[in-house]
Write a structure and sequence with these properties.
Strand content: 5-15%
Number of helices: 27
Oligomer: single chain
Radius of gyration: 26 Å
Strand order of the largest sheet: 1-12-11-10-9-8-6-2
Distance between the termini: 73 Å
Number of strands: 22
Helix content: 40-55%
């Protein structure tokens, strides 16, 4: 019989229960025990869903903030800089690493890094929109089994009567994903210290009666140095003696040259991502020894479209013939990246809803395919008929294709993705026009989304208030944000985005070709959730989307007001995108819609337009051989969106929480007049590459981390700006936070921005107008 399982399940809860429990705990409204109880309730609920459909429940995928941070505690390698005494509660230490601790009053900016206890650096989880907390590793890092949480959760599931498959992030992936904190230090040198700890964990799991442990090594889908490849056989030979059966899980990318290595490792089974790497499934069926399990990731764990049953079964039948009972079926990766269930999506029309499969529905698809293989298609004829009808409906629907969109793309003239003049020409025009001081201070876009703002938007959506009242309330919030910025002395203002629920959803709601779930939330990090739009058809812009609010804000001040747009690649990356045409075609369609909006802003007196692209690095294929093609169409999409304005109009872009050094030529080729990037958590390390590359345009390195509740001192930000000025010409530097401020409160926002503006003023005094010009 074929076995079915999942690599992981969404931890958030169908109604974002985890988010709300975390935020209540952080506010002090509930105790740690109450938060733990909320976690137990969510786990039990999710295991019940899995048990109803699968042969195992997966234990170890739940985390209160991030699973990598959970491994830091499990492996006993909390960074020494947090100065934990060992007496603090485990949960308190966990959130200190995740969120940081504000520096004490009067401590100044002379402590380590920025003073206080800055949070662990955060970056993208491979090429997804999930963020993980980066382990900090050094030559003296030690490891031990320091948390019993995983073992307690195994016992929880067993007490409920469920068969358990535990899951761990593998030792080599853990080290790879970490960051060395000493010059010349090689993270792999820690492997010999780490392996005994993994061995002890596996032995303890066996002692609890766990038969199978899924051990995730997603780095096998990367271009690994030989020394890392060679370490796999050594590591897994050591772990093979633990007595548990190991299912080595890979996902997100083809294994390519690492496939043979993965097949010969001394593990009991191998999981292959059959969506991202279908060719690997057939090869693994031949190369993997017959007695080992082949787990076929046949259902897309990263998108929400119903699987084509005929395509899936065509791929599975030869595998089933070869592997018999040694074939397992699973989603391609953890279902962390999709919403919990489509059952409650009553607002979607019947046709569109029939095309979708969220996490719970994907488990049902696995059941369907298992029965079709084991019992024959006649046994599931009704289920197959429903699935086939839905796929045919989507394939043939007239709502998917818009001939006018295709015609416009085909008719684009040569040079449509280029500004009229080179950057030096544009820079001179823009400086003369705006007359900004050196080190101009600005923000990334959003201001605090208060409970009152959210309540007004909710009332408007429900129809409880009319258009006139909604407009008046939003204008009042915009005026408040503008007034605060003027009081603080910022140089380039924003309207604050009170009207926006999310930087992607807001635009998708106004673009043709998009649909929206009511409760399709996924976790980005911690309590931060997003509800990705669903791109089901050709994209166009029926009407202006931001002009009214931005023009109103500009009318309140003589200072420049930035128009705030989300870029085409980010809208693409942070949406559930149609899979029936190349992604670059969808990106170009979105780019033209954003181009039209930028041009409308310019026509309405907005001279600075920011087109955010935080996800452009995230979209890189994990294999370097595929980078060139991706970067060509991704950067072209950005330029298409930004090149419909005059030279005197200044185009900004923003990127956050990713490494950029290996794609700096392509970032420069985007040709934004100003780029703002996240750099504070890395202590300006990310900026070093821009300096070495001699980045030609202007740049605003983030000087404080908006994801932490800490209020940085003037001295702390001044120190970061000095580090920036050491590698970037002072005349090309802007001063700004790392990211938008929607998740922060007004008191901390005002205090932090006041310090930031003062830091900018001190830099102007130190460098002088002439030096910084």
């Amino acid at each position: 019989m074929t076995t079915i399982h999942t690599l992981g399940f969404p931890r958030l809860g169908a109604n974002r229960e985890l988010k709300f429990a975390l935020e209540r705990y952080w506010r002090g409204d509930i105790t740690a025990d109450q938060l733990e109880a909320a976690g137990r309730e969510l786990r039990a609920r999710h295991w019940a869903v899995q048990k109803a459909a699968l042969d195992f429940v997966t234990v170890g995928d739940f985390a209160f903030y991030d699973h990598v941070a959970s491994h830091i505690q499990l492996l006993g390698c909390e960074p020494a800089r947090f100065e934990f005494s060992g007496g603090e509660p485990e949960l308190a230490r966990y959130f200190t690493m995740a969120r940081g601790v504000a520096e004490e009053s009067g401590c100044g900016g002379c402590g380590h890094r920025e003073g206080g206890k800055p949070a662990l650096e955060m970056t993208k989880w491979f090429d997804t929109n999930y963020h993980y907390l980066v382990p900090e590793l050094a030559p003296d890092t030690s490891f031990r089994v320091a948390s019993a949480r995983l073992f307690g959760e195994v016992a929880e599931a067993q007490a409920l009567g469920y068969p358990v498959k535990a899951v761990l992030l593998g030792p080599l992936s853990f080290l790879w994903l970490g960051k060395g904190k000493a010059a010349g230090f090689e993270r792999l040198s820690l492997l010999e210290k780490l392996l005994p700890v993994y061995g002890e964990i596996l032995v303890r799991l066996k002692g609890l009666g766990v038969e199978w442990v899924q051990i995730d090594e997603p780095i096998l889908g990367l271009d690994l140095p030989d020394v890392w490849k060679n370490a796999f056989e050594r590591a897994y030979s050591r772990l093979a003696g633990s007595g548990v059966k190991l299912l080595l899980a890979t996902y997100f990318s083809p294994l390519e040259d690492n496939l043979h290595l993965a097949c010969k490792l001394p593990v009991a089974g191998l999981h292959i991502d059959g969506v991202r790497a279908p060719q690997d499934l057939a090869a693994a069926a031949d190369w993997l020894p017959a007695h080992k399990i082949l787990s076929a990731g046949i259902v897309d764990g990263r998108n929400i479209w119903r699987a084509d049953p005929d395509a899936a079964l065509a791929a599975l039948r030869p595998l089933h013939q070869k592997r018999k009972e040694n074939l397992w079926l699973a989603p391609s990766c953890s279902l962390l990246h999709v919403p919990v269930s489509a059952a409650g999506e009553t607002a979607l029309d019947t046709e569109l809803k029939s095309w979708l499969a969220f996490a719970t529905e994907k488990l049902a698809e696995l059941q369907l395919f298992k029965r079709a293989l084991d019992e024959g298609e006649a046994a599931v004829a009704e289920g197959l008929a429903v699935a086939r009808l839905a796929c045919a409906s989507r394939r043939n629907s007239v709502r998917v294709h818009d001939p006018a969109v295709a015609e416009r793309l085909a008719a684009l003239p040569a040079g449509a993705d280029s500004r009229f003049s080179s950057f030096p020409v544009r820079q001179a025009l823009q400086r003369a026009h705006f007359n900004l001081p050196p080190f101009p201070a600005t923000t990334i876009g959003s201001f605090p989304q208060t409970a009152e703002i959210r309540a007004v938007r909710a009332s408007w959506k429900r129809g409880s208030i009319g258009a006139a009242e909604y407009r008046q309330r939003m204008q009042s919030e915009i005026a408040y944000a503008v007034g605060k910025q003027l009081e603080l002395g910022l140089d380039v203002l924003v309207h604050g985005e009170a009207e926006r629920n999310d930087m992607v959803e807001y635009f998708g709601e106004q673009l043709a070709g998009f649909a929206f779930s009511r409760n399709g939330w996924v976790q980005s990090y911690g309590s931060r959730c997003v509800k990705p739009p669903i791109v089901y058809g050709d994209v166009s812009r029926p009407a202006a989307m931001t002009v009214e609010w931005t023009a109103y804000a500009q009318g309140l001040t003589d200072k420049p007001m930035k128009g705030m747009l989300t870029g085409p690649v980010t809208i693409l990356q942070w949406s559930f995108v149609r899979d029936d045409q190349p992604r670059q075609d969808t990106a170009a369609q979105i780019a033209l819609a954003i181009r039209d909006e930028a041009a409308d802003l310019e026509r309405n007196g907005i001279g600075i337009v920011q087109i955010d692209e935080p996800a452009i690095r995230e979209g890189l294929p994990l294999r370097r051989s595929q980078w060139k093609a991706y970067l060509a169409w991704a950067t072209r999409a950005f330029r298409l969106s930004a090149s419909g304005v005059a030279d005197a109009t200044q185009i900004h872009t923003h990127m956050c929480y990713a490494e950029f050094n290996d794609i700096l030529p392509e970032i420069a080729a985007m040709d934004a007049d100003v780029i703002t990037i996240e750099t504070s958590r890395s202590d300006m390390e990310l900026l070093q590459g821009f300096g070495a590359f001699d980045y030609p345009n202007e740049i605003g390195p983030g000087v404080y981390d908006i994801h932490s509740p800490r209020i940085p001192t003037v001295e702390a930000m001044e120190r970061l700006l000095e580090k920036a000025a050491a590698v970037i010409p002072a005349g090309n530097l802007w001063v700004n936070p790392d990211c938008g401020l929607k998740t922060r409160g007004w008191p901390e926002t005002e205090a932090a921005l006041a310090n930031m503006v003062e830091a900018a003023r001190r830099m102007r005094a130190r460098y002088g107008q002439a030096d910084a010009a």
